[in-house]
Amino acid sequence: MAHGSHDHDEPTTYASVQDSYFDALAVHCGKAYAGEVTAGNEADSAFSNKALIMHVRECSDTELKIPFHVGDDHSRTWVITKTTSGLRLKHDHRHEDGTEDKVTMYGGDTADMGTATEQSFPVDAESIANFNENGLTASVTNVWHMYIEPTVFTYRLTRENRDFRVDFDLTKPVALPPTPWGHE
Fold first, then answer.
1. How many angstroms from the chain centroid is the CA of residue 6?
2. What pLDDT digit, counting tens, does each position of 96-154 carry?
3. Which of these CATH numbers, 2.40.128, 2.20.25, 3.40.109, 2.60.40, describes 30-174?
4. For residue 177, which of 98, 81, 27, 76 has the smallest C-alpha distance?
5. Positive/negative CA dihedral, 70, 72, 74, 76
6. The model's pTM
7. What are the structural domain ranges in the chain?
């Protein structure tokens, strides 16, 4: 599946499936897409009636940075990194002045190989500690999911009594959003 740009010695299907997933996202580097909330509840009202834009902004062979803009809020960037054991998702959360939010770099690592179109990231210990410290106790069972299909990218968050989902239309690139807070 690799396009020759990756030098892999591991024969594992793990790497190949996750590489295919990573590469499917990386194809969109430099483009931005609009999304809509397709599942959610009152906890997600911050996202209603706002323009939701994902921007596959920074790409290397091992890391993708994808800012997620919510109206005029440019605080969130999804960071997907290849690790020795799979893929890692972190949420880089900044204030308008660029400083880190006290709840930032939360996320988790894949627990299994997933598929070429779907990866799930159960919350890691570091994030659980951060959520507990900041009173976000409901978040300690979070699992984030990202799906990449030919025409749609989905960001999803699940936990007990919560299923939040945003679908982005990959068939219609939109104007690039501003630089996310705290990024070059």
1. 22
2. 999 999 999 999 999 999 999 999 999 999 999 999 999 999 999 999 999 999 999 99
3. 2.40.128
4. 76
5. negative
6. 0.89
7. 30-174
